[in-house]
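BUG: 3D viewer hangs when loading the predicted structure for this chain

Environment: internal workstation, default settings.
Expected: structure renders.
Actual: progress bar stalls at 90%.

Input used:
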Amino acid sequence: MHLNSRSYNVLSALLLSSFPNLSSCAETASSSLSRPEIIVAPIQPAKAHLATTALSTPRNRTCHVSSLGSGRDDSPALLAAIKSCNNGGVVQLNETLYTISTALDIKSLQSIDFNISGTIQFSSNITYWTANSFKYVFQNSSSFWQWSGNDINWYGGGTIDGNGQPWWDAFAKDSTLARPILFVMNGVTGGSISGLKMKSPPNWFNLITGSQDVLISGMTLTAVTSNSNPVKNSDGWDTYLSSHITIQNSTILNTDDCVSFKPNSSSIIVQNLACSGSHGISVGSLGQYVGVTDIVEDVYIYNNTLSNASDAARIKVWAGAVPNSDGSLPYGAGGGSGVVRNITYDKMSVSSVDYAIELTSCYMQTTANCNAYPTKMTIQDVVFKNFVGVASKKHDPKVGTLVCSSATKFVIDITGNTRNIINMPTELEELVDFISHGNTQVRTIAVENLIPYSLSQPSIFKTNELLPVKDLKLLVRDYKQIAKDAMTILINLSTDKEVLEYLASDKEFINTLFNKLTNPAEPNANLIAMLLANLAKWDDLKHIIALERPAPKELTSNNRAIDQLMDLFVKGADGTYNKDADYDYLAYLFADLAKHEEGRKYFLTKQEYDGVVPLTKMTVFTEHKSDIRRKGVASTIKNVAFEIESHPSFLSEDEINILPYLLLPIMGNEEFDEEETMAMLPDLQLLPPDKERDSDPVIMQTHVETLMLLTTTREGRDIMREIKVYPIIRELHLKVDHDEMREACERLVQVLMRDEEGEEKVDAGMKTLARRSDKPSSSPKPFSSQANGIAGSWASQDAEDPASDSDDDKIVEV
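Structure tokens produced before the viewer hung:
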């Protein structure tokens, strides 16, 4: 953020309010801090887990978290300790009880441990959690908190308590209630959780998503109701878009899957578990969504005990999409494709289980529908062996069931042996080698089939000093379809820091992307714009602001690369340059460039070749039909607004004239009284009766935060009072249910209401905006990437922290 000496002190207050109270964190130096030793046995992964090697960074200090007690929220103290002990410390939670009452997005962790010997309990405020928990698209799930980062370990013998009983009671009355998952790893690379107890989750115990190299050992999971309302959906562990996971030596008492391998889970070991009351150790369900490819492969399940369960070993995939009565395809009711491959259930002891083995490709469907619409999933190389024990009498005399909707989709072995590919190269690794094959058809098949793995198992592309990534860079210049698929993989891989720097620092590759992007006949131009937007996360890519390159004759800009990008962006709005591209994603690139002083200076400087300030070329798109374009433009404007000395230009009607472009998107068709209307900007008067405000509350929030930045100067505050910004913000606050946006409105009004030195009262007509706490408003928070292999990881935005008190003083990253 850029500030100068003329900045109004409201920004200082906002900056201070952004940080938690640090008083509860005691930082202590320590020369020797170690976590419990975890031995992975008897089955071992091909590559040792980071937590079991000396490669994990030694911890050298501790930060103690003090509990406030009496049910008060300990979230600020926890965040303060994390901030102090990140990068080489241990956070100690050793008091009797900690209460968490705030949704926590705990990200960017690096080389940090959590020694939990006390109890962490979540508050039972269902109204708050329903509105503020993190929402995921997959199976309509949500969570109290989510963790991400590298080299993270949790241990200590303590308890994480989800306080689930109130949720189970409420769910008994309202089965649509979305209940939070107790513990979510959402992007953890290299970590372990061991020796802890978990109890009473409102929903699943654990979700491991977008993660790699995770070791789980010595856990005790318990979900037991205290009344007649049953525990619901208390899966022990669910893996999703994750690989290289080991779950071992744990005890689980629950009412749903003991372990469930959700879409795009691979290279997993589950051993030495004692599961009671569950639905078994399950693959799936898979194939739920039309157009989505689900893959689960290379899973070894060894030496587990299942008792009092509906199933022991279970594989469940959906049938094909069964049309509705009107012929349309229902969403989330089957029809997805994919494969279940190389799954081994070995040495399983069962007691009072209804089915020792259950495999169905007819999940959630009737036999007739399955016959008519067989599954699109393939199941192959599945082995069940060394099962012992006694089944219940529920299905006597049967002890297992296999339901196959297609005779060509299944290759199952119940008696034979399987190779232990946990310690052998997989077909997937061999497929990567075909990226550089001399045969075009082989390359085509290879990159097409590797797309899903760029999301679920990106490590396969990082072998041999990133040789596969190097090959993919070359394929960007290959035939159209190969180039498209290679670009898609690179987009997904570029969320990895190592790959990001490798790609973004290659100036020859950047030049290749520019050449293709500026070609009016380039069919993959939008994908290239996505990739460049991702690469802008690497700070040194800002060199393109000063980069010069010959301009194609079709562009009217000069030889500056940044001007050429701006010209593409403007022409893309109406498709006049490339019929296959709208270049909307360049707005995200501009927003990231505007994080840097050089970028902000560019957007504010009149260009010699056309005499236009670049930012004014973007402001006209604040009401564009494309959500992507509007969001990127809004973020760019906000980031540029950190140049405080340029605020007079922002506010001048003869220069940037930003206010109409910020206010129109947040206005609807409401009517104001005559005095208010006549004082407003001319563009804001007499709006049509069908005028609608922006459909995305996050974009509107960004506009309000930009207005807040413009109040940094006295001139900005006076102008906003004069043109009656307050009634516009008042109506926005009243009409749109979105907590973060409404908080931004409240902060802006507080500043506008503040008395100025030398004046008695700035505006007696303004009132503090009242909150409405009865309407939850949080927008769902999707996973960073979808499982269908499309290019989506560019959208894994470094979103502003939803737990922060103040977002309007932050540079926006998109």
